[in-house]
């Protein structure tokens, strides 16, 4: 079974631009979560989607948004990029409807904002 | 915001020694998980312990959970150079979602 796939792996953007990151979960998984990892704030939850619905949301500004498609693939978008958005963005997929099991993470997308 | 702190922040040991990392959290949980991260890459799941369990083993890993103290520990026995990584504890958010609340992590260096 293929693991969680995130594309692209690396991205360099300019302040003010927008960016879209993609995540393909493990086949059969309907939950996709997104996390931001920075040296200063650590790993922080962005949002979770289950069956195309946002089920939970972290404490991030509205510039961060996401969506999930009927095939469970998910995208997250960051608009009006700021230098502080430079981070490793991780996506995780979950196999059950209730989040009581392990989450499977992708390799991440490293976003650099210049 | 992060759930809690991990202790120590960094740990350097010799190959063959045991490594112990501690995690504290703030709120009630259904389960606590430990993940490993190699050099800024993805997270690899190590072990999950439920709130009604006190100890769990997986290979060279031993995890304990003390819900009264809101703390957990991860013991890696007979460490190897390949165990060099950052280790994170993560707690669930007590709702029916996959929202995980991560600790600050412990950077483990195993010297050959």
Explain the overall architecture:
The complex is a heterodimer of chains A (114) and B (112). Chain A is an all-beta fold and 114 residues long. Chain A has no helices and eleven strands. In chain A, strands 2, 4, 5, 6, 9, 10 and 11 form a seven-stranded mixed sheet that branches. In chain A, strands 1-3-8-7 form a four-stranded antiparallel sheet, with no helix packed on it. In chain A, a hairpin with a 5-residue loop joins strand 7 and strand 8. Chain A starts with a strand and ends with a strand. The model of chain A has no long low-confidence stretch (mean pLDDT 95). Chain B is mainly β and 112 residues long. Helices cover 0% and strands 54% of the residues of chain B. In chain B, strands 2, 4, 5, 9, 10 and 11 form a six-stranded mixed sheet that branches. Chain B has a five-stranded antiparallel sheet with strand order 1-3-8-7-6, with no helix packed on it. In chain B, strand 9 and strand 10 form a beta hairpin. Chain B starts with 5 loop residues before the first strand and ends with a strand.
Please supply descriptive tags for the structure shown above:
heterodimer, A: 114 residues, mainly beta, seven-stranded mixed β-sheet, four-stranded antiparallel β-sheet, 0% helix, B: 112 residues, six-stranded mixed β-sheet, five-stranded antiparallel β-sheet, 11 strands
Approximate strand percentage of chain B = over 45%
Instruction: Please report which band the strand proportion of chain A falls in: under 5%, 5-15%, 15-25%, 25-35%, 35-45% or over 45%.
Output: over 45%
Largest interface, and how many residues on either side?
Answer: A-B, 32 and 28 residues
What class, by secondary structure content of chain A?
mainly beta
> Helix coverage percent of residues of chain A?
under 10%
Distance between the termini of chain A: 37 Å
Low-confidence stretches of chain A: none
The total count of strands of chain B amounts to 11
Q: Which regions of chain B are unreliable across 5 or more consecutive residues at pLDDT < 50?
A: none
Mean pLDDT of chain B: 92
Radius of gyration of chain B: 13 Å
Structural shape of chain B: globular
How far apart are the first and last residues' alpha carbons of chain B, in Å? 36 Å
Oligomer: heterodimer
Structure annotation, total helices of chain A: 0
The main pleated sheet of chain B reads as: 6 strands, mixed
